[in-house]
Structure formats: C-alpha cells, structure tokens
Amino acid sequence: MSERTDEERWAAVEESIELLHEEDVDGAVRTLREVLLADADNVHAHYYLGLAFMRREKAGAALAAFSEATHRDPAHLGAQVYRGWCMYELGRFEEAIDTGERALEIKADDDEALHLLGLANAETGRKTLAMGYLERFLKGRPSAEDRADAEALLITLRGGATTRAEA
User: Fold this and answer.
1) How far from 109 is each of 11, 16, 117, 119, 142, CA to CA, in Å?
2) What is the dihedral of CA 138, 143, 144, 148, to 10 degrees?
3) Element (H, E) at 127
4) How far is the C-alpha of 145 from the C-alpha of 31, rounded, in Å?
5) Which of 162, 163, 166 is nearest to 153 (CA)?
C-alpha cells in the first residue's frame, strides 16, 4: 500500500470531480486513470471512475471500479450502494441484495440501499421483504420520481391496480 494520506488522495481526484460536474465524462475517466496509475490504492479515484462509467451507462465497467473501491475500503458506503445498483442493472439481483445488505450494515437507513433492496427483492419474488424495504425507503426523502415509482410498485406488490384515477 502506498504512503499517501487521505488528504493527498482527495487532492488527486479534485480535477476529475470538477470534470464530472462539467459533464466532461471522458476527461474525468482519463484523469482518474492517470491517478490510478500513480496510486492504485486511491479509493476515491476508483469510486469516481465508477460514477463516470455509470454516466456512460457502462454498468460492467462501473461495477469493476466500485468493486475495487469496496475491496480497498469495505466501509465505503457510496461504493457499496452503487456496486449494488450496477449488479441490479446487470440482472444480478441476488448479488445486488447481498451488497445492499452490506450497505445497510454501514448505515442502517440509507435511502439508496433501501430503494435498491426493495427493487431487487421484488425482482426475486420476495414481496414481503420488498414491501418492507420500500416502506422504509418512503419514510426518507426520495425524489418525486423515485417516490412515485416506489409507491406504484408497492401497489403492485400488494395486488392492487397500478393505474391512477383520471382527473
């Protein structure tokens, strides 16, 4: 393991984070790869590389980056959660559930992990578990879109209609 401090590792990814904010994903990927060539143990670089690949809808590449981040720091909540979302996107629902549960061990009521677990359990036919996670998710502060989707899925899981009454 290299002798860099966490502060130095954060400084090494600042430019890449700025490029992501500017929507220059290709530039961010390039600079993050350069950071990782100099310091393969930089968890922040692996994490942001995963985010960059997610923006490019490359779930497999994003999964590899998030997996590297969680390998180096199993308590990295963001990397655990996004690793689970990548698995979900790839149809690897059981692994997504395992990863979501690990994320909840880090932070018991993480909204993103609860959302992931609700959807992944629904995909595997575990209705009761899915409903429990989605209900916990809705107690948080989900976006309007995520709230509407979760509420619609809950209605479906409970066996109700999913169409809304016309105004």
Assistant:
1) 30, 30, 11, 16, 12
2) -50
3) helix 127-138
4) 33
5) 162
pLDDT of residue 165: 42
Q: What is the pLDDT of residues 35-75, one digit of tens each?
A: 999 999 999 999 999 999 999 999 999 999 999 999 999 99
Q: How far apart are CA 46 and CA 114, in angstroms?
A: 23
pTM (2 decimals)? 0.89
Inter-residue contact 113 to 104 (CB < 8 Å): yes
As given in the structure block, the two tokens for residue 11 are 């400084």
> Which amino acid belongs to residue 138?
L
Distance between CA 52 and CA 61 in Å, rounded? 10
Average pLDDT over residues 143-147: 96
The whole-angstrom separation of Cα 128 and Cα 89 is 22
